[in-house]
Automatic annotation (TrEMBL), chain A:
It comes from the Eukaryota. Belongs to the metallo-beta-lactamase superfamily. RNA-metabolizing metallo-beta-lactamase-like family. INTS11 subfamily. This is Integrator complex subunit 11. GO terms for molecular function: hydrolase activity; metal ion binding; RNA endonuclease activity. The lineage of its organism: Eukaryota, Metazoa, Chordata, Craniata, Vertebrata. Its main location: cytoplasm. One of its GO terms (cellular component) is nucleus. Keywords: Cytoplasm, Hydrolase, Metal-binding, Nucleus, Zinc. It comes from Chelydra serpentina (Snapping turtle).
TrEMBL record, chain B:
It holds the Pfam family IntS9_C. One of its GO terms (cellular component) is INTAC complex. Belongs to the metallo-beta-lactamase superfamily. RNA-metabolizing metallo-beta-lactamase-like family. INTS9 subfamily. It comes from the Eukaryota. SMART domains: Beta-Casp. It is found in: Cytoplasm; Nucleus. Gene3D superfamilies: 3.40.50.10890, Ribonuclease Z/Hydroxyacylglutathione hydrolase-like (3.60.15.10). The keyword Transferase does not apply. It comes from Chelydra serpentina (Snapping turtle). InterPro entries: Beta_Casp, Integrator_9su, IntS9-like_C, Metallo-B-lactamas, RibonucZ/Hydroxyglut_hydro. Keywords: Cytoplasm, Nucleus. This is Integrator complex subunit 9.
Amino acid sequence: MPEIKVTPLGAGQDVGRSCILVSIAGKNVMLDCGMHMGYNDDRRFPDFSYITQNGRLTDFLDCVIISHFHLDHCGALPYFSEMVGYDGPIYMTHPTKAICPILLEDYRKITVDKKGETNFFTSQMIKDCMKKVVAVHLHQTVQVDDELEIKAYYAGHVLGAAMFQIKVGSESVVYTGDYNMTPDRHLGAAWIDKCRPDLLISESTYATTIRDSKRCRERDFLKKVHESVERGGKVLIPVFALGRAQELCILLETFWERMNLKAPIYFSMGLTEKANHYYKLFITWTNQKIRKTFVQRNMFEFKHIKAFDRAFADNPGPMVVFATPGMLHAGQSLQIFRKWAGNEKNMVIMPGYCVQGTVGHKILSGQRKLEMEGRQILEVKMQVEYMSFSAHADAKGIMQLIRQAEPRSVLLVHGEAKKMEFLKQKIEQEFHVNCYMPANGETITLFTSPNIPVDISLGLLKRESAIGLVPDSKKPKLMHGTLIMKDNSFRLVSPEQALKELGLGEHQLRFTCRVHIQDPRKEHEMVLRVYNHLKGVLKDYSVQHLPDGSIMVESILIQATAQSEDQGTKVLLVSWTYQDEELGSYLTSLLKKGLPPTTA
Amino acid sequence: MKLYCLSGHPTLPCNVLKFKSTTIMLDCGLDMTSTLNFLPLPLVQSPRLSKLPGWVLKDGNTFLDKELKECSGHVFVDSVPEFCLPETELLDLSTVDVILISNYHCMMALPYITEYTGFTGTVYATEPTVQIGRLLMEELVNFIERVPKAQSASLWKNKEVQRLLPAPLKDAVEVSTWRRCYTVPEVNAALSKIQLVGYSQKIELFGAVQVTPLSSGYALGSSNWIIQSHYEKVSYVSGSSLLTTHPQAMDQASLKNSDVLILTGLTQIPTANPDGMVGEFCSNLAMTVRNGGNVLVPCYPSGVIYDLLECLYQYIDSAGLSNVPFYFISPVANSSLEFSQIFAEWLCHNKQTKVYLPEPPFPHAELIQTNKLKHYPSIHGDFSNDFKQPCVVFTGHPSLRFGDVVHFMELWGKSSLNTVIFTEPDFSYLDALAPYQPLAMKCVYCPIDTRLNFIQVSKLLKEVQPLHVVCPEQYTQPPPTQSHRTDLMIDCQPPAMSYRRAEVLTLPFRRRYEKIEIMPELADSLVPLEIKPGISLATVSAVLHTKDNKHVLQPPPKPTQPPASKKRKRVSDDAPECKPLKPLLSGSIPMDQFVQTLEKHGFSDVKVEDTAKGHIVLLQEAETLIQIEEDSTHIICDNDETLRVKLRDLVLKFLQKF
């Protein structure tokens, strides 16, 4: 029986290092190739030895698909392709292809140059890796080979984020990557058609959250920032350079303009300006409003937001600073945090999810005394706020996507086990489909029963369709044909055509039964009685009295014969072919019972 | 399968394909050459144009002198310019299910189709096609609406009157169907019916047909289309280019294995080499400016202008033109320049790579930044303050009948220092210039048409090998002005089928098979029988389910009642229910074995007689006769069902079922 196998190498009951192996109809596809922010050792990358213990990656995998540019989805790619060794195709959208190498280079710099790690991928490896990337358009059907095709759908999570359909014949899997079902200030909502995949692999970051409306959250956010600035405090917003940062910048920019505020807003240097430039050039990937107005005003050219310099952190007075990275695990955001943490007037707003082990995760879980490098204890007096701005679908959104795509089963990844468990039950209850949540390294096997495509001769199909048009459509209509199997082709043709094609003649089998009827009347009167009787019983059939005195029921011939010696007994010859067997047999048994007494 | 040809213009096609119960319109080009018969619409009062004499018939009759004006021996209609629409009477256009657009030049008649014919379907086009198409339409509407003209001439259209007019008015076709330009609300309504598609996206139409746009290499977002079912494939090739300019390269491989290839939109200037023309354009431009003259380039607001600006970007410094201002004047100039920078995914490889850096893909961004190129919505407003001569002006419309170009023709036409350079190939430059004669300014004709030429076509056809080629009749003979150039026509085997306006072609197709799916439960129940080595047969009796033109075979329903009770029901005089039909039989009965079998089953008195064609088997006790021939068996017996069924089954043992 055909089967689909799924094995997460990362993101199984976990957030981080997304990497999911899918085997479908003999094709092997790897979905995402991410790193884990919570680890600095071997565990930061997926365990590719799962594949390599049996041979080379390139031999095993038919292709690799990257859903979006976040490092927990593509951070292991150069390691995977250049250090472990993979030479097959890697698919991603154009914006992902453009932005991915920049984030990888940034990641490499932090790891190698700042932390001094060796045995990490090099800049050249990033370049070589990107050469293996094939860019795809939204909705384009990409033929990976003759049988395997993939198609990207808009996911709305970050610029260029996509969901992917992987299809072989009539079997298919959809992988959502990270997605967002509500449009925000710069991106549109995820969308997929009713593609009815055998399996939907969905992220489940916010499996148990139902978020209040976006507008409320935005108002809250602005209120908090505003209050803090009013009382002279400094606001730190740790973000990733691309994604939420742009949305929040648009939000603050318009607010500042409306309220005529003067406190400076800074964006930490480096990636940012470049990042905004990508948004300008890939504006077709943003939401409809931005696309519509971009000629008059490009939303990514900010008036109030200026580049940040390290020295500004010590400036007196209020300010708002966007700094990378988003989970306060390294870099500039962490530096500023350490400077400002001691003052209760200040505030840090965490606009997204934080992985376990990061400073962001610690302060969000209420820790106020942090042990920093060198045993130093940092006391956090500043206000810590969490605002869910990360663009993941919440429970409602996940259910909505399932409703849109109508999968035959669902598999959850990219979430915490406990929350997944809850969502899994909800999905199984509401949609009556199986829902799985494998851990890393655990394989889920799904049996499918795809229909078998065959070629049907148009003549046969038209003949049968015409029959299907008769009013009584409640009765199922049966089609009769002969399936010719030759080499690997299957053709369904009419039996006549099958005989002809094979050069065989038809052998006609005919039956003629003598039926004795007790009737003293003249022959033609008897025939008329038989005719009336049959006509009365067989209402749905064509019953004809022919001029030569015989009766036709459909194609069955009934004739009287004068053979009999007994005047009181007449003999009817009922003649039919094997193809009319049912009716012929029925007629003879009907006539055997004799004719009903005439009322006349 | 039928093809309805609604346009006679080979580069502005409009065809309707009827294929498997779907009706598909391929492009809706608008023939604007009709406007050449009209007087230009001046932006500012032109004493010259308003003083043109009325046209008088040979017999001195002056009844047309209000409608027709004469200029240097040519006669023009003094009225709002009108366009020649695709044929609307050949078939009921409200039955069109979908419209496929190949590029932004081939959608200019869209509002006439979607807003006036009862059309309720969907239009498919790529995003750049829609965005730039919208700009072209908005520009056109703006050009015409901002110069309101009171007069709408119609007397001359009378058939009797038209006969008396001089050429080319006399020969103009279908003048009664010519229409004025549409309005902005109509453009918006038409464009709202478009659904965006990407290259290689498979779009299902009613489950019967699949259509797919492919990159055609001619313009931003330009596409060829594949229209196919499981067994038939039609390729629609319209406006394609193999030259490397800014758009993504043409996808040729996907056109292979077509049953029919419809070929339209070839180059209009088959004898000109686009690269050579660009060179000539640059050198003429430089020479004029150096001599203190101005250069006028009538153009569309998108397309070749991007390439020209890129050439000039590389050329101006070396040619010493750094201080000459370049002006681009169009109501959509700014939008066009901005839009060109955001379609990275639709650009050629080189330009895509630039976006990854990230840098704007077109260098005109830099020309604007350094103030070398300035753009204005019209000659009014800011432009009049900034205007410095000598200069280079890019502006529309290439027909020279409306738009800001009319003003510059009037302004610069009198001086031989100035030059007008024609780069757009859609209009004959002599016809375009006719209402401006006599003219002192220099005229240079550098038509740049990057679409396929006949050498490229013959290479393409050799490569993709379609079974049949269908094309406009113009492509099946040399151009009328160069009748000896037999190389300037399509040469293929079998010869191309040609069409002309208002013709209906029956395409050579024989559909023989359709796709159907067998459910796995049914497949499991089939019993294949090897008839010949490598060929197996199985008889199939199944329920046919058809939904959205998809056919699925399901297992026949199991009888709801046990057979015993059924028999009782039959006795109660109910007609038999729908039962599986009996298969066809094949083979022949071997006599000896058959007789042996009969004897084995208890018939002791078997007697065989030979006949001319076979044998007769007699079972005397049973009063039964079996006639056996090579291809038939006839059992004649008493009405004894048990006996008959027994004999039937014995005969069937020797036959194969189909």
